[in-house]
Amino acid sequence: MDLLKTILEFELFSVGTYSLKVSTLFMVLLIFIITKVVLWLLKKSLFRIKGADEFSEGNIYSLFQIIKYVVWIIAFGFILEAFGIKVTILIAGSAALLVGVGLGLQQTFNDVISGIILLSERSIRVSDVLEIDGDIVKIQEIGLRTSKGLNTDDISIIIPNSLITTNKVINWSHQTHLNRFRVNIGVSYESDVEFVIKILEESAKEHPDVDSQKNIEARLVSFGDSSLNFQVLFYSSTIFGSDRMKSDIRRVIRRKFIENDISIPFPQMDIHMKPSK
After folding, report:
1. Membrane-spanning regions, if any (predicted)?
2. What fold, for 179-259?
3. What is the pTM of this model?
């Protein structure tokens, strides 16, 4: 015991009235280990109940992220106290400095506040598929300042949280796993409208990712300059790979049109020449 006490009281260095002892480093290490263990136990406990109806994986992740940041802030305060730094005095003495830093890092603070909003509000969750500035992104991680996502080209994208909270964002997976998609097509004016509608609905129904239990509907949308414009609407749970699914349906439509002699016209313009007098 005397040896242990001697080791803990050993002074590593001193500056003026301040001295750093082995016991201080031991206390800091103990705080760090306890924090890691507490977070590990909380994570295990939270994700153990992910099968419950009132929880989803995104909800649990958001809750754990908030708890983790709070726990680390408290742990950092204890570490400063262990080093002999009074946190209250430090905050009061650096108020003016914090104002200056805040002005310089205004965008960063905006991203951090946005991250807290996302984690607490839970309008965006991990595995959600978002449409941001025309890009389809699957959210992989929501951080305090930035979020990480994967686009349809399997490229990892780092998104500032303020971009999600301040811009118009479409969340394809917020309320339901089924979403309605549409494919547009134009045919010649000589085509049989009812027959075209039948082919479009059959083409969409053939795709395995299209939900056949939901209504598949083809519509005559408008009379174009060179074509009758149709639209086929269908439901699917394939959100992230919807571009590939729609491409497959277009290929089926094209094949059926060729088999049934239905032409897809190209824009045409008639020029009338007036004879000179």
Report:
1. 20-39
2. Alpha-Beta Plaits (3.30.70)
3. 0.55
